[in-house]
Amino acid sequence: MTLITGDKVVVTPGTGGGRDSLSVERRPGAAGSVRIVTEAGDTYVYPDDALAYVAADRLDKRLFNVTGLIAQGYDDAHAPRLPLIITGGNHAALRRGGTALRGAQSRRDLPSVGGAAIAADRSEAADAWAALTAGGTGPSGQDTSGSRRAGAAPSFTGGIDKIWLDGRTKATLADTTAQIGAPQVWESGDTGSGVKVAVLDTGADTGHPDLKDRIVSTRSFVPDQDVPDGSGHGTHVASTVAGTGAASDGKEKGVAPGADLVVGKVLGNRGEGQESWVIGGMEWAARTEHARVVNMSLGSAEPSDGTDLMSRSLNALSAETGTLFVVAAGNSGRGSTPYTIGSPAAADAALTVGAVGPSDDLAFFSSVGPRVGDEGVKPDLTAPGVDVLAARSQYASGGEGPYTTMSGTSMASPHVAGAAVLLAQRHPDWPGSRLKDALMSTSKATPYLTAYQGGSGRVDVAAAVRARVTATGSVFRFLRWPNGGTGPVTQEITYTNSGDEPLTLRLAVEAGAPDDGVFSLSADQVTVPAHGSTAVEVGADPSGLARGDHTAQVVARDATGAAVAHTVAGVGLEPERYDLSITMKDRAGEPMSGWIHLKGALSRSTTAYEIPASGELTLRLPADTYTVVSYADVVGTHGPSSRGIALLSAPEVDLTADRQVVLDASKAHQVRAVTPKPTTLVNTRLDFFRSFTSTEPSPGDYGAVRENVIVGPGYDSVWAQPTGAKVRHGSFVFATRLRAQQTPLDLSYDGGRIDDALAQEGSADLPDGTSTPDAVFAGAGSPEEFAKVRARGRVAVVRHSAEVEPSAQVSAAKAAGARALLVVNDGVGRLAAWYGSPDYTTVSDVPVVSVTKDEGEALIARIASAREHRVGLRVAAHPSPSYLYDLVKYHAGAVPSDVAYRADPDRLARVDVDFAQPQDKQALERRTDYPAYEWATGYSFGLEPMAPGRRTDWVTAGEDATWQQTASVSGWVGATNSPTSYRPDSVQQERWLGPVLRPRMSDGDSQVRDDTSLSLVVPGWSDSGAPHTGSAGTETMTARTSLLQGGTTLLTTDSAYVNAFDLPAESLPYRLVVDTAGDPAQSPYSSKTHTQWDFVSGKAQSGIVPLVQLDYGTELDAAGRARRTQEVSLIPSVLGTSAKDAVSSVRLEVSYDDGASWHRQDLKLRQGSWRATLHAPSSAAFVSLRTSATARAEGSVAQTVIRAFGLK
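The structure assignment produced for this chain is given below.
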């Protein structure tokens, strides 16, 4: 998926026993690092130039929640346009700022939040991000990724204050009207007549008998969907509010059957919507339709503190119009902790409704408070929400008849909305806030529920309508720490008498242990004048109270002793807090600005904070154990203008008193690879894992801190500050994952050496080898400046400049006949820019490399002082390495002082890797590790281009290092080997992307039988390596799989995943058949294959299915061709066993005429493989193979591959 910054995140599901993997492809020209953070199981990917905006609350962190984006259907395939909400001060400027972004479309104005909804074209994301940040004070233009000057607050162009994800909202899914007293109100003549009520939901079945005569206005806010309700949720909710019961002769009426119903479709037919649709519906219902009451049986699943956009809009519209918004509390239940009230239920002005059953017992699914942040009392009250019978939409699937039952707070909320309508009919002059107070203060008490479960009680509309006196619904105070010496705190309760006679009330505080005696009243009796109000104070003395929340009911009784009104009173005492002072220093020991991530053992998520220019930040935090981590930009190793990145951290900070943490880059040591052969670090990943509870790192620890940084090309060095003693509680791992390869480019000249040159994206490669061209200086690289120098056949040195575009520099260099272009950066760090065509599709003809400012300016000065203003260069280029080192080290307990990896050949494994190059296509490759603390493979570097031929890899060996390698050709085939740990000082071989391509299963545990089901993964395009699995990268290459039992076909699928359920328990014969068809435009090989596995399976054979696999070996050239007299080897194996004799017999036939005739070959078993020598006729161009093998225990395979490989 493409992030708002233009960077791409690629999540690849694991196949053949492998874990999922995640990699990040930086946008063209991006040089910075990428930070990957895991919070409560969700993975966030932050390009470091975006982190400043997130820390400053300018950018919604949900925009970087990869897990959440996928779950909401916001990956590129499902959402080519990313839905956003932009907010700011000047609305007109805002709209211009949003639509001015390249490719953005305006969707909707949202004046209630001072914003607008837009849809950003992801294909234009990189340019849009540049436009957003170009006029602000954050990182912009040339990627400086975090090098924002100290003290400058990040900002956006166009009047934009903040950019939010337009996130998904969901529907929060007789005799419930009798349960709340509605029939008693109907008898008095109040049915809601003349009162307009809006239902914002999935639309409605406008033709339903219970609704068609009540609906007065409709509108859809869902693009490309009309009002009719394909979900059924909105119809059910609308009829609960105002259904007439016409389809049941009036029996199944809604709460307010006489109301005028306004239907706004803000959720799609699958019950999901976007926040901007909901806000647009709220504005329409309150401002355009002037609805007295609005029901919203929807919301977010994430807890909210009431400051989110939907809550802001609700509060603003309530204050402006007097509309009462009734909102479902949500269906998250209590969960592992309270605080499950989401948005917009968390809004102050919302009447938030939980769900109870027929006996007023809390429904297990009903979300509970307190509200996060201030411990506010939510929900406000409850209503019936279990097995509610209401209208069924004719457009929804499932069910029959006019009615259906549903459960949820979605069903509870419309009961309260209907009650509010009945009350509004009786009191047409009451604003929404008074309706809310009246419903809360007259509700039926539910003393067995806490205020955070049931609010003030279960709604009782009969009591509300007949009440002469109402009271404030709830009062609450939250006291910050230290809270023992503040003295008593008071809150005001207002009693309002709507009757014609004064009313005397006796007041009492009712509370159970431990809150009995906490609250007191300023008066125990008040007289409320007719049509007037009287206030009384309720106080609480926090001295001696336990920290936490304390609640009670203040009950008002009339002269008969009957309770006529009640108010929830509460006081929350913030837990103890202390100062955590953080000091940040650069490599010279001077104050430095930057960003930190902080997480406590008891907190739900990681929080980002900005360290100001002073290098000092003090946070007031709850007592807890904390981890502080920062990846800070520091001066690198190539002069003042170079840039490095430093891990500065404190894994264990026990905050039981005021504490100080010093993040000091001057104490950091360089992360580097010391290798036997000359190398350069081309890829670095740092992992930071901190568990507060587990002594062993585990991927299932969702409370752990997981931060992974993939270091970008703009950095010349990586550093880590030692953390001292190992953590005392839980576990900690600091890991370094390094790829050091044969130095790609080394430049030297008389008087200097440049070892920090970087090939630029979009440019041609320098020829492999050593050359000695002259270098000349051509200013900023404009045609006029090139005209002043003799650049033909020479390396043209130019300065990077905002005045001359990279493509213009390349064009001028080409026109001047320059051999290569050497660009001197004019900013901090290495330059990483796109030097291909402006549309990012074509690579330039001229090789382009960049050098850092300090080294480049030294070369420019040398050229200026030289005779004829030219300097001889020595250029050693190796664009495709002949060797590399893939290294990983996991440091447990602390960041050590020595963070260098010293590569001892005796402790490494050597892997000789051969890459084929089918049809002259570009091969790509990467190797990933398997950390113990990740469900997926370690976050990987992007796929790197590789040249055909052999490469020698040295990799970390031993049981602690597990590797998986991937090779692919875009639009053709991608292959992966099995997770492997290598023995130290061993030698292995891998061949990639060559014949024979055929179906082959992983040696892992993906082929499993249990009692009654069978799960298989059958990749159809495994390549030449054993044991590789592979899949096609184009729809023109097909694979069809069938599973049969006896003569019955159980399933047929085009997917590699085969899942059969409800199988007989007894052992029966099965057959798995796979047929593939290749694409001759992509490759001449494996034009057709047919593979058949026969096996016995049943409950008794539960576990790994022992299917026979076939691997092939023969000597081929880079084009996949063999000599005409050539040995071929067959290596059979059986899944689930490593026994060498697991296969008892093998048969091989070959064809030289695409299968028209077959010739059996004599096979000899030698060193675990069956071998035959082929003698191909001179007329043959291809070899086809037909092979079969039988397992010694049971089962067999037969495989035919047409055009398995070619002939020279």
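Interim note for the steering committee: The chain has six domains: 8-16+47-166, 169-467, 479-573, 577-743+882-987, 745-877, 994-1207. Residues 577-743+882-987 form one domain.
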